Amino acid sequence: MAKPKVATASLAGCFGCHMSLLDIDDRILKLIDLVDFDKSPVDDIKEFTGPCRIGIIEGGCCNEENVRVLRDFRKHCDILIACGDCATMGGIPAMRNTIPLKECLDEAYLNGPTVYNPQKILPNDKELPLLLNRVYPCQEVVKIDYFLPGCPPSADTLWQALVALLGDKPVELPYELIKYD
Amino acid sequence: MNDLEVRVRAICQAHENNRTRLMDIVNAVQNEFGYVPGCALDAIAKECGTQRVAVQSLVSFYAFHSELPKGRHVIRLCNDIVDQFQDVQAVADAMVDEAGVPFGQTTPDNLLHLEWTPCIGMSDQAPAAIVDDVIFPRLTPAKAKALVKALKAGKSCAELAGRTGDGNNSHRLVKSAVHNNLRLRGDVIFADYHPGSGLAKALAMSPAEVVRDVKTSRLRGRGGAGFPTGMKWDFARQTDNRNKYVICNADEGEPGTFKDRVILTECPELLFDGMTIAGYATGSAHGILYLRAEYAYLKAFIEDLLAKRHKKGLLGKDVAGKTGFNFDIRIQMGAGAYICGEETALISSCEGRRGDPKNRPPFPAQKGYLECPTIVNNVETFCCAARILQEGPGWFAQKGSKGSPGTKLLSVSGDCEKPGVYEVPFGIQLQDLLEMVGADHPAAVQIGGPSGSLVGKAEFNRTICYDDLATGGSVMIFNQKRDVLKIAMYFLDFFIEESCGYCTPCRVGNVLIRERLGRFLNGTAESADLDYLTRLGTTVKFMSRCGMGQTSPNPVLTTLKNFPDAYRSRVKERKDKFQPTFDIGAALVDSQALAGRKSVHF
């Protein structure tokens, strides 16, 4: 029987959760025994090759591209995990949510104290995905099956959750792994 | 010291600078100035030896108190669900049109202030409003317009009250346009009663015998919870504290309830007899009648009766000639807070505090008002007790149904021909009641107010009693044109507004429930939301601190149970894999406008 497939993506996140996944150290060899990676920065596969067992999402949605990718994950993955605080709650990027979009752009590209932009150009190449009015945590956009809190969730947390899900066991993380203070 | 401070000081001194009478002091300041200004807060705190924050927190708690001036006349229009279905909005629009300011605002000349208020106990004559303690029932847009116009022309509310209603509503101290709508007199409350007769019988017995009789009658509390009255009295009787209190809960705030209004208007003597009997039975010398602010129009009338009872020797020292039994009753006015109908919150309010519920145990019968043993009973319960002592416990116990002896006053409102107060024996079938009141194509009936349950046609064969459909008296009838989800939403809004905010399940839980219920109304619900509502509702019920929080999810839980189709028919499963509440179009509007291009993906 073919190995189950796992896909991952970083949306409006910092790749910290992916780094944390790499922190499982030598267990990555065991992981390769357990699963194949489909669309993921780990193997640089850009689009889904087929249905996947598990999708891991880092980051929330700040632009239309994030929304497209997230929906693609929902379509292809049996189980979707929101991984880390940005995916579950919006995190740092959501700090802009109380400020109108135009003010954010003006501050970033025109008025900020370190900005040098004599021609007053706001980036607007058609290749650039359009920003959303605010940053959405993943479960506001699509249905999410599991939430792993943490900034980032530790390697042990990720590892135990993955092993449990792949083994069809309930995800019962000990308190130490989901306590952050 | 400025003039205002002098006047505030005088008010405090009239109440002996008593911190526990802060409600009366603040009510008096509010009535005199139309608001409680900041310097008054300081003056009251200083006079009564408390902190400004204690006074301010009280003022901020009650709907009828205000820290800002609100205009000379405050028009409070009732927005209860029954009023809404009688098109109170048209009445409101007429008021706004004539006054020139929207609800929540004061006219620039500081003459009028418009605001919404929850049920004022006039559901049988909705839509209704209170202006300066005067009730204006059965409003139409034309009447509302004329009212505002006359107020603008400088008329007083008393002049505008209109033709007085039936019975004691036309008494010189009431003079109210309210109608009793007393549709059915039963054997217990609205039977002929000679004032003092039940009391005389009680005083001929020992207190223990009185309690025994009340126990034998199996009388249960009429406010809704149904606690055995005799047992409560016995608890208080057995405590050896010298100061004990008897409190009558006339804070009839459960939407759709107005039976106490009719008792207080038509047979208050029966109530006073009952309270005095309770005082005798429990060994208490102090009675407090907690009267809701909405019924302030009855205050002068009741005060006059109390004074007359004093003259007749039915109150005061050696009541009715019984040496050593002293009993007095004072009126404690509320100030517009539903939660004060909950007995521990009511006690807090009587003590001159915010109407915050207290932890139980200790129960009030052990430690209540000012830490003294206190019994709190409903108006109707005291009336039953007086009749039980007059006619004997056996007479009472054989009425009604097995587990629910006696009669019950029902306040019937909504879609029916004859709304009003009905005194029926317990155990009456809902179907029979609906026929009696001339219900118009009833599709749903809310029994027991928002904290009770909404039942559908399939359950019209159920009976009204403690063991089946329990109610404090509220029966609201809705025909098939009414949307049960809108009803549930209104009640939920009501609870959110009235929550004291102390405990998280009630304060936060109900807001989350409202958000999710809102999805059914705006077409973004999915089937998983049904389960969410059930789970969250159960949690709020289980985890809340007082009776209000514990019943606050009932509008949603009972409609989910009894009207599942009303929910299911509104569930829309989306095919695009997005959450039903996610609107990608709306999320991109700003960005598309700023960038001047359309999304390539959506």
What report would you give on this structure?
The complex is a heterodimer of chains A (181) and B (602). Helices cover 33% and strands 19% of the residues of chain A. Chain A is built from 7 helices and 7 strands, in the order βααβββαβααββαα. In chain A, the strands form 2 sheets. A 5-stranded parallel β-sheet of chain A has the order 2-1-3-5-7, with helices on both faces. In chain A, strands 4-6 form a two-stranded antiparallel sheet. A 6-stranded mixed β-sheet of chain B has the order 5-11-10-16-13-14. In chain B, strands 2-1-3-4 form a 4-stranded mixed β-sheet. Chain B has a 4-stranded parallel β-sheet with strand order 8-7-6-9, with helices on both faces. The longest helix of chain B is centred in the C-terminal third of the chain and has 18 residues. The model of chain B has no long low-confidence stretch (mean pLDDT 95). Chains A and B meet through helix 3, helix 5 and strand 6 of A and helix 25 of B.
Q: How are the SSEs ordered, and which strands pair?
A:
The complex is a heterodimer of chains A (181) and B (602).
Chain A: E1 5-10, H1 16-22, H2 27-34, E2 36-37, E3 52-58, E4 61-63, H3 64-76, E5 77-83, H4 85-89, H5 101-111, E6 131-136, E7 146-148, H6 155-166, H7 175-178
Parallel strand pairs in A: 1-2, 1-3, 3-5, 5-7
Antiparallel strand pairs in A: 4-6
Chain B: H1 3-14, H2 22-33, H3 38-48, H4 52-61, E1 73-78, H5 81-85, H6 88-99, E2 112-117, E3 129-131, E4 134-136, H7 141-152, H8 157-160, E5 182-184, H9 197-203, H10 207-216, H11 229-238, E6 245-250, H12 259-266, H13 268-282, E7 286-291, H14 299-312, E8 328-333, H15 343-350, E9 374-378, H16 379-391, H17 393-397, E10 407-414, E11 420-425, E12 428-429, H18 430-436, E13 442-447, E14 453-456, E15 463-464, E16 474-479, H19 484-498, H20 504-521, H21 528-543, H22 547-551, H23 554-562, H24 564-568, H25 584-595
Parallel strand pairs in B: 1-2, 5-11, 6-7, 6-9, 7-8, 10-16
Antiparallel strand pairs in B: 1-3, 3-4, 10-11, 12-15, 13-14, 13-16
Helix pairs in contact in B: 1-3, 3-4, 6-7, 9-13, 9-16, 10-11, 10-13, 13-16, 19-20, 20-21, 21-23
